[in-house]
């Protein structure tokens, strides 16, 4: 950030001198307070700089809002992936069909609108009519055709794009505003503001900086009409996006599930409070970037775009850039660049190849990478989008150089009625959707194969918020250690199972070292981008091999193979690596490889895979289906590459994908079918390809985990290991991932994680793995699966362990981040399972009941001597009568003695010696109580009207402390000292062992069932639940040595006990 003068702050590292001078002129206005903020994409504009944020007091500048009121972006994340586009995007002909269908559905170019109001736009038009009536103006004056403008794109830098994010998910993205009706409203009020400035004889740097004064009729009229135009712009984007969604769904032959929709403005003004004062904040080419506010920042034509969330930077007035920002005017761009340069910049992107778009060439804009780098303290990047299809429009005659087609004002009167849509699509109804109630509503496009959208209040399935492995990897790449902790949570148990197959190597250390190596690689820009588990298995195998060479150890599983070198692991893996199946798998897109690993190798279902790939279960099922089909085709192509084939065979195989999807032309379809009828070899190969998925586990597991690791892992899965729970990890994400570092988030229960159910291995604290209740190499252990709520603040129970308040995700000290993750405990006794009692069969004949055996009669019990019992005795003759009793003389009544104020009475509750005592007692009503420890510390309180009192004697040390108490009444009289009460407190123990520079193994011991809090300085790292044996294990991910200074203490009922330091064991 750069301060320019007294009232201008700039976040633009590249700033045109004209834009700088224009911004200084705006900042000099008396109505500006406290300063103007320039965004990274700032460039000259009408009156005020585009990319400027202008706070004004008591006035609004219409030209600063701009001519295209409410201009902005809208984006939709769909359930589709790259797998739903042509393979490797090579078949651009199919993408061209998609582009042209969008061009037919949406009127493009300046001055070109709909011919009729479509049914989908009708409800939106009615809403705008009612809004205008409420505002007291008629938008038809002077824009009589404004209703037909709704659902049209415009020209210039407005666009429609089909993009892929970093996980190859399909996004639909477009940019447009309030069209001609918005411009007419802006022009009218800019003129009014100029006239008022002239009448007031204002000396302005530019007449376009004239303002309207708050409280005047002109101000109120502009504000009402501006808000109407802003609503028009938003609904215009909604209408266009609905049409684009429909066209994409028809092209992909599937209903589109909108998993996220974001709609944001960048030309508007509204009342906001900044630095303690209410201002009219005008964002001219800037988006709202308040804390947690979603936003969209597009790049130029052909460049990347970004889905972001605001950081709430108060200094930047909670704002961020709206795009790349021009560096060449349109005229200068046309003079400077060539069509060949535009084609080079758009390589691999389907667009209409025409010189009409030369002024939109990426080189005419600031590099979007520079803009985003300048925005690092303004927004956080959620997704990076790369264009696949680009739709734009120019003015007048446009010539497509590739097709030779001449289009006159692309989009004119095309696909503007439902009737026309039905005629072209064979009767399909146009996509319709109720107006959303928020920016993140989930919408489902109409489709005969999908359930209709439920009515409000109906049974709506929840939107998945799980982050995929790929998303977690990207967060870890940006230094988010909590995201890497979630990856550990998901995959560590599987890794331990593989690690235990490597002879005497310590499995925990092997897993820790492998995770550390991957983390280092990710931070260095390498490592996996998705499919984390197979990458982890390969790293485990390589790490074990390097450790084995260093220790001159030999894997036990290879001893029997020395006589036959061809059967060694190396030879086996080399053969598998050269196999057709491996070649076919590696040729697939990363997204397909990931879902095939989990579905075909690990045997998971869509519900279990969904959180790992960041998709809904239905979308995951569709992705898996397409991936399996893609594998078959890839296997066929690889088979033909490895064998000699006739040209006709190669031609046929190359088109089998399109043939399967019904995308071939009639002539090509007939040719393929004729060849398959005549060629037995191609027919057999195609049939074998259908079974290739079942062979994946036999090939991929050994390649990634080694032969021994594959055997152990396959046995673990086949014996009922909780692959689902392990894969799912925590059901929610830590608060650090959700942007709330103050609250440890809800990586809650419902997940087994870390090797939950089933056996483990002894030695080195290895946990997880093995079958449920079964054994694994190196030992056995029982385990248990804990359930939780999955909500923030809940605990994740694993073998009696719970890391509460977010499963150990936390911010430590200044900038260090540690992630605590619970792992299964091996200290539980190996108890035999309870005997299973068979249920009697239904309707079975009852078993014969044996005759009852009479119980022996017990002799009468002899009464206890202490019990009064009437015992019969022999009668005795009466003696002489007793003399009459003497009447006692009554004693005088006692005289009351005033003993003064008595000592109070009290008791201490320490929750079993764990936490600071809660003292409760009785005293005289209203008396002041003073509790004193044997180290002279004191605590005070007052008795209530009933004489009851309580207090917590906090910060007592471990060991025994004697407490006494006195009371004093209102007269100042002080009671004697009460009898001392002994308080005995204990502390838990924490043993730390470091493995590499990232992983710490933590072992907690103490009172069974107690809760232990981990502290570092003033920060609470985690709450750990001890199991029934009084122990727990966890893993901390942090590269900081200061974890050795961690303290532990018991916690219960909001109270805590004395602390004890960690003991660091040698690694």
From TrEMBL:
Gene Ontology MF term list: DNA ligase activity; DNA-binding transcription factor activity; GTP binding; manganese ion binding; RNA ligase (GTP) activity
Binding note for cofactor: Binds 2 manganese ions per subunit.
Cofactor: Mn(2+)
Domain Bacterial Ig span(s) in chain numbering: 916-984
List of residues binding GMP: 157-161, 266-267, 298-301, 305, 322-325, 392
Extent of Basic residues compositional bias: 430-442
Protein name: 3'-phosphate/5'-hydroxy nucleic acid ligase
Gene source species: Agromyces bauzanensis
Source taxonomy: Bacteria, Bacillati, Actinomycetota, Actinomycetes, Micrococcales
